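Input record (Table S2, row 328):
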Amino acid sequence: MTRRSVAQTHANIALAKYWGKRDVAANVPAVPSLSVTLEGMRTITSIELAPDLTADTFELNGEPAPALALERTVTLLDRVRAAAGSADKARVVSHNDFPTSSGLASSASGFAALAVAAAHVYALDWSLERVSDLARRSSASAARSVFGGFVELGCDLPASGVLGASVVAPADHLDVRVLVCVTSEGAKAVASTDGMRRTAERSPYYAAWVERAPVMFSSLKAALLARDLEQVGELTEASALAMHASAMAAAVVYVTGATLQALAQVRELRARGYAAWATMDAGPHVKVLVSAADAAAVRAAMVEVPGVLRVLEARPGHGATVVADDAS
Ligand code: DP6
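Output record (DP6 complex):
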């Protein structure tokens, strides 16, 4: 008999960034983070358990996945099999409808979808918090994509050993859009896991980041709960700049000329009265947090920035769902 589960998740963009690990082996973040899950920017992952399989396989966007991605996938599946008392191998097929491994948070929605589909197909009766913890062990930002709306992930591992993300506010809490300004179609130069490790090892500013980030996180969370978009925006941009400054001091540089031009455009738009703030992850793209009212005008201005190839617009969206579940 063949069992199959299909999960759908969305990317998330951190407003208060996670950068650095408190515990590398257990993948516990060094700082708390707060993100918004985005409608659109979707991953769909199907996992099939079939008796003829002798090893796990992983197809990503229509091609066999790179060795490292397969290895990380097998690690997650092994955790699930151990909990389920199963030896069944899995056929994993995953699709992103946005560029993979480019700083557009594809690992977040990817591991979230994998965790949700795996827990389901191996019939584990786990809470969403537990599934989020499973995703976190593979990629900490993935813990947040299990949930919709505005989501936080702490950095203190409880005695239970389960550290999952949780919802701070629903998707309709704040009427905002995120404009993803794509500045390159290629894979990022330094994967986030490596970038964090190098930052922790070499940056003279890493300690300052770890000390300061929780303060920014708490202020941002309070501003979000108070629906103070101005403060949320200021702190979002401040968090990204502090993260990148600490990384840059360790020669981990994600920004390009196009990134800087896009940042300058966002500052200029703000000076003209638009409610728009920038953030960047482990890649050259700029994501603009903008009020829904200003989204169209800001989008038109961002498309004009030299080096910005295209602009995707997303609104706060839903968490993970199981979209199919069958046995044949
Ligand atoms: C800059 O979650 O990709 O996007 O846990 O090592 O897989 P690992 O790192 P990952 O890092 C994401 C970093 C970030 C900020 C964020 O999403 O909070």
